[in-house]
Design goal:
The protein is an alpha/beta fold. Helix content is 46%, strand content 15%. It folds into 3 domains: 4-150, NAD(P)-binding Rossmann-like Domain (Rossmann fold, 3-Layer(aba) Sandwich); 151-311, no CATH class; 326-396, RNA polymerase sigma factor, region 2, helix turn helix motif (Rna Polymerase Sigma Factor, Chain: A, Orthogonal Bundle), CATH 1.10.1740.
């Protein structure tokens, strides 16, 4: 069995750390050849000391100098690079055959696209590659001839519940009727709406079931995360938007479901632990030990499902509207949300302003066809500028 050569984009985040945990348990199966990180240079250095990748990438020259010094002290000969283009280099020149695309936000788009074009096995944990450039990304995967395995727990669950040759045939020829994405509802699913105006970043990041980064935790609280997942599912699985549903499932045990024409509903269940979908993607089509505790159904008091309240979660409604508009609208949605969430986390902007900023940005920018990566990135930059201006106006 050949050893898979793995590049991890975003190795210091929660997905990256969990990926390394699975790899650590299977040294006979996987070798780490590239690691990339943003601000957590010390953690990246520790990872490089343990896994000895050929390439490590950080954001800027100062971080690169610090990382190089730390590795030199430990006599580790990893080649240190920095900047956006270096992320692409980590994919194309590290000798990897498998890429964990786990950089949060638009920054992960270019290296994920490079992995698709290069015919790698792409383990996609970065929603933005499909939200911003779904058509371009799926075409790149097709032309590159690689394998695309979704790592988000919901899309991974759906992937497991679909027929084996689903991607090679129209969904309706195989009896698939609907995809049901489950959502925990986040920390505020039962909070009275009038109390949300005083929400703090720490409260928004205190997810009841999953351990995640701060940005994605806020997206879970607003349910923008689920809206982005709807757009992602649209591109991954090829069903019309009206066939993709969202259900609030507070226990986070049923990760998603597929409803078939004959009345069957097939669900994937498991602990709320990202190592399960990560291990599935790394070893596919085999299944390997992921270090996850067994699921005991006898210890579960109940499994409940409800329809989401769009008054409580306007971001979910905005995401459906952007998906329906198509073209560059999802890119604008994503960019405005990134700016709004950052303002909430770092600058004291009120929590309830997040959907307002996103909606106003969507209204301010005309939708056009997402025909090229250059245009998508241009619209992303424009949306960020508009969102920043709106936040500034709100403060004055």
């Amino acid at each position: 069995m050949p050893i898979r050569q793995v590049a991890i984009l975003g190795s210091t985040g929660s997905i990256g750390v969990n990926t390394l945990d699975v790899i650590r348990a299977h040294p006979e199966r996987f070798k780490v050849v590239a690691l990339t990180a943003g601000k957590q240079v010390d953690r990246l250095a520790e990872q490089c000391v343990e896994f000895k990748p050929a390439i490590a990438v950080v954001t800027d020259a100062a971080a690169a100098a610090r990382l190089s010094t730390l590795l030199l002290e430990k006599k580790i000969h990893t080649h240190v690079l920095y900047g956006p283009q270096a992320l692409v280099t980590a994919v194309t020149e590290s000798g990897c055959d498998t890429v964990m695309a786990a950089i949060v936000g638009a920054a992960g788009l270019l290296p994920a696209l490079a992995a698709a074009q290069a015919g790698k096995r792409v383990l996609l944990a970065n929603k933005e590659a499909l939200v911003m450039s779904g058509d371009l990304f799926m075409q790149a995967m097709k032309h590159g001839g690689g394998e695309l395995l979704p790592i988000d727990s919901e899309h991974n669950a759906i992937y497991q519940c679909l027929p084996k040759d689903f991607t090679n045939a129209p969904y309706n020829s195989q009896g698939v009727e609907e995809l049901w994405l489950t959502a925990s509802g986040g920390p505020f699913r039962d909070t009275p709406v009038e109390q949300l105006s005083n929400v703090t970043p720490d409260q928004a990041c205190a997810h009841p079931n999953w351990v995640m980064g701060r940005k994605i935790s806020v997206d879970s609280a607003t349910m923008m995360n689920k809206g982005l997942e709807v757009i992602e599912a649209f591109w991954l699985f090829g069903l019309p938007l009206e066939k993709i549903k969202v259900l609030i499932h507070p226990q986070s045990v049923v990760h998603s479901m597929v409803r078939y024409r004959d009345g069957s509903v097939i669900a994937q269940l498991g602990q709320p632990d990202m190592r399960t979908p990560i291990a599935y993607g790394l070893a596919w089509p085999e299944r390997i030990e992921a270090g996850v505790a067994p699921l005991s159904l006898t210890q579960l008091a109940t499994l409940s499902f409800t329809e989401p309240d769009l008054a409580r979660f306007p971001c979910l409604s905005l995401a459906f509207a952007a998906a329906q508009a198509g073209g560059t609208a999802p890119s604008v949605l994503n960019a405005a949300n990134e700016i709004a969430v950052a303002a909430f986390l770092d600058e004291g902007m009120p929590y309830l302003q997040i959907p307002i900023i996103v909606e106003k940005t969507l209204s301010a920018i005309s939708v056009t066809n997402a025909s090229s990566l250059e245009l998508i990135l241009e619209m992303d930059a424009q949306a960020r500028a508009v969102a920043r201006d709106l936040i500034q106006e709100m403060r004055t």
